[in-house]
Amino acid sequence: MDPNTVAETVAATPYGYAIAMIGVAMCVFLCGIGSCIGLFKSSAAAAGVLSENPKLFGKVLVLVLLPATQGIYGFIIGIIASGALGDTAMGTVEGWALLGAVLPMAIAGLVSGIYQGKASANCIYAVGKQEPLSGKLIIYPAMIEFYAILGLIISIILVAPFIA
């Protein structure tokens, strides 16, 4: 078979669109899972601390909400990447490339959301014991946030050529 014919056949298949769609959905889904697990951990810790001292609500609220950002980042990448899904005749190579472009955010969002929730929970317990530490303790889960932001930036850079 002629190599040009093979390339044209691969470029014209509808599989690329499906692969890209799975990648975009997977990014949103995995980031959402990471946020849900992280929020479960941090909110459970907050419930325990607040049951003993309800006045700490404002001080633990930010720590509870930090893991939610990964879900937001995944949603942002999902919106941006869905702009590349307008053409249902997307080639298989392009579909795999778009899936690969959203993977940094998908993986970083899942893993950092879970571990940020665990870090936040431990910081919430510390605030329950020593209230004045609340301002200082936010830095620990925020360091994990940095890696979610790196995943977001890389995915934006990799998705950008698809929507240009």
From TrEMBL:
Classification via CDD domains: ATP-synt_Vo_Ao_c_NTPK_rpt1, ATP-synt_Vo_Ao_c_NTPK_rpt2
Main location (coarse class): membrane
Family designation: Belongs to the V-ATPase proteolipid subunit family.
Keywords carried by this UniProt record: Ion transport, Membrane, Transmembrane, Transmembrane helix, Transport
Protein name in the entry: V-type ATP synthase subunit K
V-ATPase proteolipid subunit C-like domain mapped to chain residues: 22-80, 99-158
Subcellular locations according to the entry: Membrane
Organism, as annotated: Candidatus Gallimonas gallistercoris
Membrane topology category: Multi-pass membrane protein
GO MF term (any one): proton-transporting ATPase activity, rotational mechanism
Gene Ontology cellular-component terms listed: proton-transporting V-type ATPase, V0 domain
TM region(s), chain numbering: 15-40, 60-84, 96-116, 137-163
